[in-house]
């Protein structure tokens, strides 16, 4: 038997790296204040502000679907990027609150936006999901597997809450945020740094869904202690992997879990050399904790408000159920 010479497999042309091209976000119109919640449960405005820093949050009407919010945010990000929807070849939706696991959110969202036949998949890393999605999308672009990737963080947490449980109902909310990634033309233009990520599976049960009522439950104090201890080193690792120092960071956008956690981590970064004028996201005050949507929501809101500008060096850090965590440095489009 004659052995044929093996023809080597051909790989796609690679890119130096990825960069962010556009941003978008969407939230329900329905604003729920702390006083509104006090009418439904044993709580009050001062108690909520002191513990988590939230003043109000957005809760979707019953007929609003997670895919509706994902579509709005994704379409705005595509428009902001200057691309035609047909130029998007991959859609990633980071979410942990779809009402059913099948069909996925990504394919439905892509079809609604008018993106023809993209690779489309959902990613569940809970509150770290957007950072996981950006990391996956950037690697797809860098490897040549995709050219333009739409990454969306979208959650309808109100479907998964026990509205008599003040330990969770005061915190979580609904919304979506999105970013479009594309190839950097050269090494100097790379705008998404390497991903620093990991998990703490030994603490998985600190945030979980109760099977008896399909409601989210969490051990708040355990999560607080873990986040205020473990997240700053992850953020600093992402800065190091990007070849930067903490003093290079213009804007810090951690997952908007709790304003006390945000402030504690920011203090630790400043103790390691981050500047006093580093802008720190506080979107949780009026958006609540929107899990995988919180980082892109904050980034888009801060850009709209002028608190983050094109070209700024931004440190993103997500952490939450799993427990999963991830961080990367990006350049604001």
UniProtKB/TrEMBL annotation:
List the Pfam families hit by this protein, alphabetically.
ACP_syn_III, ACP_syn_III_C
What are the positions of the active site? 127, 255, 289
| Gene3D superfamilies with a match to the protein in the record | 3.40.47.10
**Residue ranges of the region described as ACP-binding:** 256-260
Q: In which pathway does it act?
A: Lipid metabolism; fatty acid biosynthesis
Sorted alphabetically, which keywords does the UniProt record give?
Acyltransferase, Cytoplasm, Fatty acid biosynthesis, Fatty acid metabolism, Lipid biosynthesis, Lipid metabolism, Multifunctional enzyme, Transferase
Residue ranges annotated as coiled coil are none
Annotated ranges, domain Beta-ketoacyl-[acyl-carrier-protein] synthase III C-terminal? 241-331
As its record notes, the protein acts as a catalyst of: malonyl-[ACP] + acetyl-CoA + H(+) = 3-oxobutanoyl-[ACP] + CO2 + CoA
Give the Beta-ketoacyl-[acyl-carrier-protein] synthase III N-terminal domain ranges.
Answer: 121-201
EC number(s) recorded for this UniProt protein: 2.3.1.180
Broad enzyme group: transferase
Q: Has UniProt tagged this entry with the keyword Repeat?
A: no
Question: Where is the protein localized?
Answer: Cytoplasm
Q: Which PANTHER family match?
A: 3-OXOACYL-[ACYL-CARRIER-PROTEIN] SYNTHASE 3, BETA-KETOACYL-[ACYL-CARRIER-PROTEIN] SYNTHASE III
Q: Explain the purpose of this protein.
A: Catalyzes the condensation reaction of fatty acid synthesis by the addition to an acyl acceptor of two carbons from malonyl-ACP. Catalyzes the first condensation reaction which initiates fatty acid synthesis and may therefore play a role in governing the total rate of fatty acid production. Possesses both acetoacetyl-ACP synthase and acetyl transacylase activities. Its substrate specificity determines the biosynthesis of branched-chain and/or straight-chain of fatty acids.
Which proteins does it associate with, and in what oligomeric form?
Homodimer.
Comment field on protein domains: The last Arg residue of the ACP-binding site is essential for the weak association between ACP/AcpP and FabH.
> Which family does the UniProt entry place this protein in?
Belongs to the thiolase-like superfamily. FabH family.
Q: What is this protein called?
A: Beta-ketoacyl-[acyl-carrier-protein] synthase III
Q: Which gene encodes it?
A: fabH
